[in-house]
Structures are given as structure tokens and as C-alpha cells.
Amino acid sequence: MEKPDSNGKQKVRSAEVGTDILKALAELSPSTSLSRLAEHVQMPASKVHRYLQALIASGFAEQNAATNHYGLGREALRVGLAALNSMDVLKVAALPLAELRDDLNETCFVAVWGNQGATVVHIEPAVRAVTVVTQLGSVLPLLSSSTGLVFGAYLPKRETVELREQELLSAGAHTLSDDQVYETLCGQIRGRGLHHVHGLLMPGVDALSAPVFNAVGHVVAVITIVGPTSLFHADENGPAAQRLLAATRAVSWRMGYEPPPITG
């Protein structure tokens, strides 16, 4: 019988400790004192100091000569950027989108913001005779779709202003032609974290949409549930809305997003 490789186990344990310290440096960024770091990871300061020296030597941590505080180093930044670049919202959202469709048996899709507006890039259709046809590559309107309105609420105004003007010109009279009304609606969407429409884009079809954020808090996609009004109830306080929010939060978390703390 082979003897346990105690040396190998020790190396694994050392790697785990080093990883814990790196995570703590990220959580306490941009910099922190040795005592605060040791308290955060619940380790003796002398032990944390030894690991910090190794991390500094490898470029994953650095120490400010003026304050003696510690922070993440250049190599940690490179690894973080590589991880961000590898994040593809379509890949990350694929499984949660399929699970959302399975839970609700309604058509669910992901849209991203393209050159012409909100563009459908992945669809999970409902598995039943009555379905809502949503085409891959469809461009949804900014002002008359829940998907477009969610994008409008979270994107910088400069990215949507031209499209809004075009839609208002072609639509003539529109309830959202007044800037104050539109801004109020956008604020309400941000406050709720989702938006629903009843037959606005297509008569007899309800839709419910919520945003997906990346690591820096920018909206990168919108996930939408659509279904016939007779079967799907796009209630913003209903179970479908809660399930949608759970899915978008899970995808956002996987994309590196950390929601701001609730204050007040």
C-alpha cells in the first residue's frame, strides 16, 4: 500500500491559503493593513506576512512603501483581465436560460445591444403547441418592447438617444415622446430591476425582462420571457418575475458582478 503523500497535501493546503489571502486582498481593495488582512482571513499576522512575501515575490501582491499597506499586484491584474476577457455572456447564460424555460415552459431569450438596438442572440422556445415565435437575430424596438425599455433604462443615454428619436419620428404620437415621462419610466425600471409589457409589441403577448451586468456594472444583456397572455402572466411581483430575477442575478454573478450594498 502506498503511503499518503504528506508533502503533496501540504502544497495543496499552502495553495489554498495563498488563494484565500488573494481573495481577501481583492475584497479589501484597493489596499489594507496587515492586521486588518489577518483579521479578515482569521489567521495569525505572522503567517499572513509569510504568504504576503511570497505573493509579492511572484507579483501577485504589492506593498505601498509610504503606508506599508498591501494590495493586489500586477500579475493578479493580468489574471483578472484574462478572466474577464474569457467571459462570454451567451455561454454563461445558456444553462440558466434553459432552466428558466424548463421551469416556466415559456419562450425565453437573451438579447444584446447591437448597432441597430436590442438584438435576440439566443432562444429557448416553449415546449408546447402554443408558442411565441421569436426569431434569432430579430431587432426589438427600444420604446415598445420590454427588452428595449430595460436596455434604455440602464445604457448611457448617448447610446440610445438616436434610436429613440428615430422611433418617435416613425411612430408619430407616442406616450414616451415626453422626455420626463420616459426618464421617469427608466427610473422605475431601475428601481424594480425588471419590466413587463402586456401586448405592447404584439397583441395577445406578454413579456417580462431583466438586465444582466458584467464585472464593472454595465448592462451586457437582457433576458426576456414571452408568452401568450392567456397562459403567461407577466406580473412583476409574481413567481415568473422572481424566477427571472434569480436567473439574471446568477448570470451577473458569474460575469463577476457584485451588486452595491443596500443602504438606508
Key terms for this structure?
single chain, 264 residues, alpha+beta, Arc Repressor Mutant, subunit A, six-stranded antiparallel β-sheet, HTH_MetabolicPath_Reg, GAF-like_dom_sf, DNA-binding
Please explain how this structure is put together.
With 264 residues, the chain is an alpha+beta fold. The protein has 2 domains: 6-85, Orthogonal Bundle (Arc Repressor Mutant, subunit A); 89-254, GAF domain (Beta-Lactamase). Helices cover 47% and strands 18% of the residues. It has 9 helices and 8 strands. It has helices spanning 6-27, 34-41, 45-57, 74-85, 89-104, 146-154, 157-171, 179-192, 239-254; strands spanning 61-63, 70-72, 107-114, 117-124, 139-140, 195-198, 205-213, 219-228. Strands 5-4-3-8-7-6 form a 6-stranded antiparallel beta sheet, with helices on both faces. Strand 3 and strand 4 form a beta hairpin. Helix 6 (146-154) crosses helix 8. The protein starts with 5 loop residues before the first helix and ends in a 10-residue tail after the last helix. 31% of the residues are buried. The model has no long low-confidence stretch (mean pLDDT 85).
- State the oligomer: single chain
Discrete helix count: 9
Structural class: alpha+beta
Number of strands: 8
CATH top level label of the largest domain = Alpha Beta
**End-to-end distance, in Å?**
62 Å
Count of discrete structural domains? 2
Order of helices and strands: HHHEEHHEEEHHHEEEH
